[in-house]
Automatic annotation (TrEMBL):
Transmembrane regions: 707-738
GO BP terms: adherens junction organization; calcium-dependent cell-cell adhesion via plasma membrane cell adhesion molecules; cell migration involved in gastrulation; cell morphogenesis; cell-cell adhesion mediated by cadherin; cell-cell junction assembly; convergent extension involved in gastrulation; ectoderm development
Organism of provenance: Takifugu rubripes (Japanese pufferfish)
Location, primary (coarse class): other
Entry keyword annotation includes Lyase: no
Protein name: Cadherin 2
Matches recorded under Gene3D superfamilies: Cadherins, TCF3-CBD (Catenin binding domain)
MF terms (GO), sorted A to Z: beta-catenin binding; cadherin binding; calcium ion binding
Compartments reported by the entry: Cell junction, Adherens junction; Cell junction, Desmosome; Cell membrane, Sarcolemma; Cell membrane
A GO cellular-component term linked to this record: catenin complex
Highest taxon listed in the record's lineage: Eukaryota
Residue span of region Disordered: 112-133, 767-788, 855-874
Gene: LOC101064737
């Protein structure tokens, strides 16, 4: 029908935004039904009518509700689309008028329009004329003298169904201008689908203005087209303002639903209650989701397996959520269900809707609803005594839950028969068996059998309402087998106390071992394993221990008065077993060690200040066989008490000092008698070696060796010694060179003719020699004794350390001075070297004979010792000053009363 709007409506009915024209807001719509729509199948419920009733709220913004006056035959949706509520028969006698009312939800203001369905001929039959074609007129231009310009018309959208089967081109609408009555015009359209890509979809007759579609449309590709219609005269001048034409592609149900996944995976715990959510499946439809073409409904077609019922699950037909509807999910019976899910559009209409299917796999997860059960009520095993970490029995259980899960893993616990905790039952992670293991040694003589009660549970508790059956507890019988055990000493170690000094072959104790095998008659033999000092012996049959040496507490093998010896006991079992024991001997001290002085060497100045030496008494014994000590100077020699004093400072210390005002430098040995405090005390004379030296003002010895040792560091002393050694090597090399030079010179002299030599010659005889004994001669007898320097020529105050102290001595007659043949020694040595290097000498040792007799004896007369008649009147006390070697001689001739 032609949409014409009366321009004479009162302005009060026109809101700001007109719907169809500038002065019209409420349209009157004529709706035409296609001819075939009046003969629908009997199952048809609703029918789509085109175009929709469009309502513009004119900027109000309030929600608008639409109603129709014939709800039994038609229904109108919120978007203005009108549907036939039932099958309608064509009635050409009278036109059907449908009143549509729009109600403002806030103010309740109402607007009413009419929709008139009319007959539409079949699309396959060509129209008899264009009388029924929709006509769109360009709005006429208003007088420019008007003060107010009216708005342009708003052209309603043109709805074109997609996938039309033609014939093409198919007319849609006619565009006309009021100026075509007075002059010839040309019409054209522009925009996508016309002169813009995709081109060629819409064409217009430039003379008649008929707009047609040239090919089928696809809403899923392009859902609407926006075109502009133009009217120009033959000169190309625009006679009308362009108008906008919107062409909507009406959706048809030409796409099936598509699931986003073909296979859906879900899980649900076994034993779940009805109504438990499982999973959600979704699908998409390319058709318009605002129409029935894109409204999907879900349905479960089949369930595999159908156990325990065929309807264990249900699905929400709109959302696709799957939930349980029946109880009885048991993983041990049915671990998995497979559902075929169907999605259908047209709101699930099985006749006209398109559908597709997918698979939902629902896995039943395990819960601990099956307790472990032993395969037998009684298990047995055996173990040898004293064995640990050995498996004596394997306990097997069955569990219907999923393997290797906390609901299947078994945990074993001993509930009875093991009060001492000698067994444990860990779980084998592979087989789930209980391994009865010995963790503490078992004594056959104490327990021969064990009867254990073992309980099996899972790592996680059982599900609510499930209880452990009686087969979750089993009895384990274990038999203990006897073995030969090692003898043991009791007590170990064994401590005894003895006094040191115990003589050999003394009995100490009996150290025997016990055999733990009470049910085996065995003999034990004993032997010694460790005896560091080799003091002890053990009887192999009785275990009696005796000494074979004297026990000495002061031995290095005794630590803290304890001496340890180890012995072994060996039985005659098969195989033999042995055990060891330790004997500890605590040695009590006796007074068997005399005290000694410490230190044994000291230094003191010649002058009496400072002149004290602190000494300490050392005794290997312990108190009371050691200190306090008594210190005393020995009576002999007599000068000891005359020159020295000793003062006791404490029980272990004393002080030795000079008694006289001055003592010459030298080394003196002071005999000191030290007595301990033991019962039957022991005394000992110790010699204190004292070096008397010259001291500086600080009381330090000025001896060069002492100064070097005290004032220089270790590195300096080593450097000095290296320099001295190098110097000595150079001197030695020089001496060797000089000797070799003298040797060559004297060798030449020895080869001179004896007749020309004025000295005493060495006569060589053809003697065989007397062997090795002939060579044992002393050449020192040929030396002159007066070559030694007499003491009188020594400087005062310089003495050797090994010389006796200087005291007034009796004067003896001076010996006559003999000539000093100083070249005799050199002559003999040079002759000896020449003989050794003589190539004509015989290859054996020979005696070299010298004919020099010397110039006489230089010894004085001895008559004063043995021939003097007044020997008894002579004073021999000075012999006491010559040292301890002359003490006996002084006692014999000293003339004292002793």
């Amino acid at each position: 029908p032609v949409r014409r709007w009366p321009p004479s409506l009162p302005p009060s009915l026109c809101p700001q935004n007109p719907l169809w024209a500038a002065r019209v807001c409420l349209p009157v719509v004529y709706i035409r039904f296609p001819q075939d729509c009046f003969y629908p199948p009997p199952q048809q419920i609703s029918m789509f009518l085109s175009p929709p009733v469009d309502f513009l709220d004119c900027g109000r913004g309030a929600p608008v509700r639409m109603e129709c006056n014939n709800p039994s035959d038609f229904r109108i949706e919120a978007d203005g689309v009108v549907y036939a509520a039932r099958s309608l028969q064509r009635s050409p006698q009278h036109a059907l008028v449908l009143l549509v009312k729009a109600i403002d939800g806030t103010t309740q203001q109402q607007w009413t329009t009419q929709a008139r369905p009319s007959h539409v001929p079949d699309a396959s039959v060509p129209p008899a004329g264009n009388t029924d074609l929709m006509e769109i007129s360009f709005p006429s231009r208003r007088n420019s003298q008007l003060k107010r310009m009216k708005r342009d018309w708003v052209i309603p959208p043109i709805n074109v169904p997609e996938n039309s089967r033609g014939p093409f081109p198919q007319e849609l609408v006619r565009i006309r201008s009021d100026h075509d009555k007075s002059r010839a015009l040309r019409y054209s359209v522009t925009g996508p689908g016309a002169d813009q890509p995709p081109t060629g979809i819409f064409i217009i007759d430039p003379i008649s203005g008929e707009l047609s579609v040239n090919k089928p449309l696809d809403r899923e590709h392009i859902s609407n087209f926006h075109l502009r219609a133009h009217a120009v005269d033959l000169n190309g001048n625009q006679v009308e303002n362009p108008i906008d034409i919107v062409i909507n592609v009406i959706d048809m149900n030409d796409n099936r639903p598509e699931f986003t996944h073909q296979i859906w995976n879900g899980t649900v715990p076994e034993g779940s209650k009805p109504g438990t959510f499982v999973m959600t499946v979704t699908s998409v439809d390319k058709d318009d989701p605002k129409t029935a073409n894109g409204m999907l409904r879900y349905k479960i077609l089949s369930q595999t397996p159908e156990s325990p019922t065929s309807n264990m699950f249900t699905i929400n037909n709109k959302t696709g959520g799957i939930i349980t509807v029946a109880a009885g999910l048991d993983r041990e019976k049915v671990p998995q269900y497979t559902l075929i899910i169907q999605a259908t559009d047209m709101e699930g209409n099985p006749m006209y809707g398109l559908s597709n299917t997918a698979t939902a796999v629902i896995r039943i997860t395990d819960v601990n609803d099956n307790p472990p059960e032993f395969t037998a009520e009684m298990f047995s095993g055996e173990v040898r005594e004293n064995r640990v970490n050995v498996i004596v029995a394997n306990l097997t259980v069955t569990d219907k839950d999923q393997p290797n899960t906390p609901a299947w893993n078994a945990v074993y616990k001993i509930t009875g028969g093991d009060s001492t905790g000698r067994f444990s039952v860990p779980t084998d992670p592979t087989t789930n068996e209980g391994l009865v293991t010995v963790v503490k040694p078992i004594d056959y003589e104490t327990s021969r059998t064990f009867v254990l009660t073992v309980e099996a549970k899972n790592e996680v508790p059982l599900a609510r309402g499930i209880h452990y059956p009686h087969l979750s507890t089993a009895t384990v019988s274990i038999r203990v087998m006897d073995e030969n055990e090692s003898p043991y000493f009791e007590p170990n170690p064994k401590l005894i106390k003895l006094e040191e000094g115990l003589m050999p072959e003394s009995a100490l104790t009996i150290f025997t071992a016990q055999d733990p095998d009470r049910f085996m008659r065995q003999k034990i033999t004993y032997s010694k394993l460790s005896d560091p000092a080799n003091w002890l012996r053990i009887d192999p049959n009785t275990g009696r221990i005796t000494t074979i040496a004297t026990l000495d507490r002061e031995s290095s093998y005794v630590k803290n008065n304890l001496y340890n010896a180890t012995f072994m006991g060996l039985d005659d079992g098969k195989p033999p077993a042995s055990g060891t024991g330790t004997l500890q001997i605590y040695l009590l001290d006796i007074n068997d060690n005399a005290p000694k002085v410490f230190p044994q060497e000291a230094e003191i100045c010649e002058k009496p200040e400072p002149n004290a030496i602190n000494i300490t008494a050392v005794d290997g014994d312990l108190n009371p066989n050691a200190g306090p000590f008594a210190f005393e100077l020995a009576h002999r020699p007599f000068d000891v008490r005359r020159n020295w004093t000793i003062t006791r400072i404490s029980g272990d210390h004393a002080q030795v000092g000079l008694k006289i005002g001055f003592l010459e430098s030298g080394i003196y040995e002071i005999p000191i008698i030290i007595t301990d405090s033991g019962n039957l005390p022991m005394s000992n004379t110790s010699y204190l070696r004292v070096k008397v030296c010259q001291c500086d003002i600080n009381g330090d010895c000025t001896d060069q060796q002492h100064i070097m040792a005290a004032g220089l560091g270790t590195g300096a002393i080593i450097a000095i010694l290296l320099c001295i050694i190098i110097l000595l090597i150079l001197v030695l090399l020089f001496v060797v060179w000089m000797k070799r030079r003298d040797k060559e010179r004297q060798a030449k002299q020895l080869l001179i003719d004896p007749e020309d030599d004025v000295r005493d010659n060495i006569l060589k005889y053809d003697e065989e020699g007397g062997g090795e004994e002939d060579q044992d001669y002393d050449l020192s007898q040929l030396q002159q004794p007066d070559t030694l320097e007499p003491d009188a020529i020594k400087p005062v105050g310089i003495r050797r350390l090994d010389e006796r102290p200087l005291h007034p001595e009796p004067q003896y007659p001076m010996r006559s001075a003999a000539p000093h043949p100083g070249d005799i020694g050199d002559f003999i040595n040079e002759g000896l070297k020449a003989a050794d290097n003589d190539p004509t000498a015989p290859p054996y040792d020979s005696l070299l004979v010298f004919d020099y007799e010397g110039s006489g004896s230089t010894a004085g007369s001895l008559s004063s010792l043995n021939s003097s008649s007044s020997g008894g009147d002579q004073d021999y006390d000075y012999l006491n000053d010559w040292g301890p070697r002359f003490r006996k001689l002084a006692d014999m001739y000293g003339g004292c009363d002793d």
